Amino acid sequence: MRLSSFFYLAGFGIKTILFHKKDPILGTVILTDKCNLKCKHCSVNNLTAIVHPYAQIKEEMNTLYSMGVRILFFCGGETFLWKSEKKTLRDLVKEAKEMGFLIVNVVTNGTFPINLPEADLILLSLDGDRERHNLIRGDTYDTIMKNVEGATKDNICFYMAINQINKGAIEHVCRKAKELKNVRAVSFNFHTPYPDTRQLALSKEEKQACVDVICRMMKEGVPVFNLKSAFPYLVENKFPTPCHQCLVIEDGKISTCGRCIEVEGLCEECGYFFVAEYTLLFQGKLSIVFDMLKTYLKYI
């Protein structure tokens, strides 16, 4: 992270904490909900299968920037399926940087060749060892490993949603993250139980067992891009929601925190680690503040 970006984001955090502000800093643009996979835990793929046009995406980027967003994510569906007016995902990342976004990240399922050296992080979904990942996402594990090895930069962060199917594969994903040269870290979420995927949710006891494994991996030197100080709040689901500092824009519609905010009762069962981390950070929890400084400076 550049020093100027660090000071900008630090200043935002200090003002937010001191003055209890709710201004956004992180925004996500949904490029499409079209996806080449049908993952067992996903409730938002191929609802419309529309690939949003470049002019609209550019306008949405401008909208978020004008609202104060400086950390930008591109999400899907599958982001690498996005093409419009001879523009590709890589073009969007470059343009976002040129517009002034300080951090630009991309979320992908990893089944397409990875040529995004301009992205700060590529959050690539890996949901376990070969058997469990393929059970969730179809026969894609080997393709993903090949694409990771052939990536043009070491800016990949494995992104694992822990659920009933893959809860026993946390250590495997951690060790893969440490082993592969193009992978910078691994980041976790707990499954957030949309009504059609409730059977995949973890109990409090299962969540505790999972964070115990993650903590053990961290002690062994695995690069985990999560805040250990937030784990107790995640296990108990005792963190404030929604996160007002995060926005999602999809087809012109802006949602606070995430698309799931409109599903009644889902916020109370939120499994997104970053939501807990950001909301606790902006409450001024000192352990979270110091943990985030150390972690973000290390991995971004």
Provide a descriptive summary of the structure in words:
With 300 residues, this protein is α/β, with parallel strands linked by helices. It has one domain (3-299): pyruvate-formate lyase- activating enzyme, CATH 3.80.30. The chain is built from 10 helices and 10 strands. It has helices spanning 3-19, 54-66, 89-99, 130-137, 141-149, 170-179, 204-219, 231-236, 273-282, 286-299, and strands spanning 26-30, 71-75, 83-84, 87-88, 103-108, 121-125, 156-162, 183-190, 246-250, 253-256. An 8-stranded mixed β-sheet has the order 8-7-6-5-2-1-9-10, with helices on both faces. A two-stranded antiparallel sheet has the order 3-4. Helix 6 (170-179) runs parallel beside helix 7. The longest helix has 17 residues, at 3-19.
List the helices and strands and how they pair.
Blueprint: H1 3-19, E1 26-30, H2 54-66, E2 71-75, E3 83-84, E4 87-88, H3 89-99, E5 103-108, E6 121-125, H4 130-137, H5 141-149, E7 156-162, H6 170-179, E8 183-190, H7 204-219, H8 231-236, E9 246-250, E10 253-256, H9 273-282, H10 286-299
Parallel strand pairs: 1-2, 1-9, 2-5, 5-6, 6-7, 7-8
Antiparallel strand pairs: 3-4, 9-10
Helix pairs in contact: 6-7
